[in-house]
Design a protein that fits this description.
The structure is a homodimer. Chain A has about 350 residues and is an alpha/beta fold. Chain A has three domains: about 40 residues, no CATH class; about 130 residues, Response regulator (Rossmann fold); about 150 residues, 3-Layer(aba) Sandwich (Rossmann fold). Helices cover about 40% and strands about 15% of the residues of chain A. Chain A is built from twelve helices and 14 strands. In chain A, helix 1 crosses helix 2 and helix 8 runs parallel beside helix 9. The longest helix of chain A is centred in the last third of the chain and has 18 residues. Chains A and B meet through helix 4, strand 3, helix 5, strand 4 and helix 6 of A and helix 4, strand 3, helix 5, strand 4 and helix 6 of B. Chain A binds a DNA duplex (16 and 16 nucleotides) through helix 2 and helix 4.
DNA sequence: CTGAAAGCGCTTACAG
DNA sequence: CTGAAAGCGCTTACAG
């Protein structure tokens, strides 16, 4: 490993001078020296020792990737295709920009604060965090941050939100179902509860992550259903449990209504596919008897039969945008908007079928 | 952040003494002092500054998680359910043991060496690495390492292999198909080529990762097929391309043989499910016309219809074992075996049906 | 325009 | 049994 001293020796100057050109304090160094040193730096692909960087408070080039709940749909959240796709994208971008990703299991706030300060991370990416939860953390933690899919109420310039147009997605979903002949379609979303240690209660007053997202999607859905003077009762918004067993029982209970309505939009592809499977097991044909539409367009949407009609969001780009904004904040830029919402679009596949009017 | 000096002040001793009890150089310190210091250390939850640790060469508590190929089945490998499950498990264990996971995109060897030495990682976990590739890396890199699913020919005690009983899994697969009435069943595996920069060729002489694994699985499959004096031609081992389009065309070409044989075992759940979908699109019913059996029992095996009969491996445990062994090596233990192979077992679901003898 | 020196938080050989 | 001091690789206020 080549040190600052080595570079200084080669250039015949002191460490100070090399360090100065390294940090752009170049006004006090002759142009000639600057050029010479820069050349040597490049030739030797000089990389400062990380331990030293951390010790001198110059950052660490570590980005903490914080996952706000350990389990989704009963599996570790890193296995969630949405989160792993995001991680893959962020990791890819970070690597190209000379940053490094450290995964932080984010269930205990104390834990996150500890890791972030111990490692002196340059910034954090939060996924699945409510704003309230983040703000609580924020008090103890002074770091640049990007929240993914968290609706923020207050504008702040040291953190950012990167999300998608959930309302618009819900609207497209509703509009499409309406057009395909399902003015009574249901909207089914899974609740998200963040479990911190023993207590779920503590969070009950928070606007919960996915809860809020499904809320927005439902609002869009509803707006579309009502656009031609129709009425869409709140009773058509069904929240199902996070627990797989309970959820299955809920599906059973919903079934008659679903058959009646003929179609349902879902808050996620996961639940949509789960419903397709459930119906399959009940010998109910999708889309002949029931039409289903998902949300997210995860990898598996094309991988099931019937192929899932769904609202597409570009996860890869989301990860790239999140990282890019974080990097710019770390490097001292002041970003103009505090939130960005990427557009989404309907992808028509095979899980929705035009309703044939009954005779 | 509380420093060594602070602890020393509280205890009324020098940093040296605190450091000595911290590292167990306790013979030269009075028992009384040791106890007092330990108590203070605990009360204050003292954690050494990482920058300092790195600078003094005492390790970093970073484990590099190296993924040997950037893409599997056309997606970033972090999105592969097998790899993300592994990552989730390793991350979980590491966090509990006070280690931290840094993801390293492992396509360029130079890159890995650079990151590993720059961060002074304590150890590395390699997934999807051929032994030859690893050994090449090894020359430039003196780190403890665990290889996952890499068959090693030479015994060495500074790295370990954690794998599963691929042969046994193939055997169970073959045995089951035989018993269900398919003595002519095919075995279909996807080739794995690791692309480093431009050149695929360079690696052609290596025993490629998944190639070797499928080889073992096939050997088990074949052994089962031949157990009662039967004959299983090598022609029944079909290798399909890594490219999705090409693979689809290959499926089309294989189709007549498959219908004839009535069943196929696959090297992975991914390909098995893909085939089920392919058959579905051809209006061929699984398992009525063709039986299919997968390998790995990934999350989606239960999530498709028909539910996939497959060979189960415990990925979570694999991750835990891999981390545990690495940790023990890092902490100076000498492990007795250089490889361990976890058992696998057949999980019967709905994708294989007993063949009805023709009349 | 350039460099000597102090300091970041830790470890360790060595002196007392 | 305990501590002063040098050193790891870097940065930065300051002196020249």
């Amino acid at each position: 490993m080549i040190r600052l001293q080595d570079i200084a020796d080669m250039a015949g100057v002191s460490r100070t001078t090399v360090s100065n050109v390294l940090h752009g304090n170049t006004k006090r160094v002759s142009q000639e020296t600057v050029d010479r040193i820069k050349k040597i730096l490049e030739e030797n692909e000089y990389q400062p020792n990380i331990g030293s960087m951390m010790l001198t408070g110059k950052g660490s080039r570590i980005i903490g990737f914080v996952v706000g709940y350990s389990y989704t749909h009963g599996h570790s959240s890193i296995m969630d295709p949405f989160i792993s796709a995001l991680l893959a994208s962020v990791q890819h971008e970070a690597e190209n920009a000379g940053y490094y990703i450290m995964i932080i299991g984010g269930d205990e706030e104390k834990h996150i604060v500890e890791i972030a300060s111990r490692w002196n991370v340059d910034g954090l990416i939060f996924i699945g965090y409510s704003e309230a939860r983040y703000r609580r953390l924020r008090r103890k933690l002074n770091k640049k941050a990007v929240l993914i899919d968290t609706y923020t109420l207050q504008k702040e310039y040291d953190y950012q939100n990167v999300g998608i147009d959930d309302f618009g997605g819900g609207y497209q979903m509703g509009e499409y179902l309406l057009e395909m002949g399902y003015p009574e379609a249901l909207f089914i979303g899974e609740e998200t509860r963040v479990v911190i240690n023993e207590s779920v209660q503590k969070l009950s007053s928070d606007k919960i992550f996915s809860g809020l997202i499904n809320e927005k999607r439902w609002q869009g859905f509803r707006a579309a259903m009502e656009k031609n003077g129709g009425f869409c009762s709140i009773r058509r918004f069904i929240t199902v449990s996070q627990d797989t067993q309970t959820r299955k029982r809920q599906y059973e209970r919903i079934l008659p209504r679903l058959l009646d309505a003929g179609a349902a939009g879902f808050g996620s592809d996961y639940n949509a596919i789960e419903m397709i499977n459930f119906l399959h097991d009940q010998r109910i044909r999708v889309p002949d008897q029931v039409s289903v539409i998902g949300f997210d367009d995860c990898v598996y949407a094309e991988y099931v039969r019937p192929r899932l009609t769904t609202i597409h969001q570009n996860v890869e780009e989301k990860g790239a945008v999140a990282f890019d904004r974080l990097r710019r904040m770390i490097e001292g830029e002041t970003l103009s908007e505090s939130s960005i919402f990427a557009p989404v679009k309907l992808i028509v596949r095979d899980s929705v079928k035009r309703r044939v009017p009954e005779k």
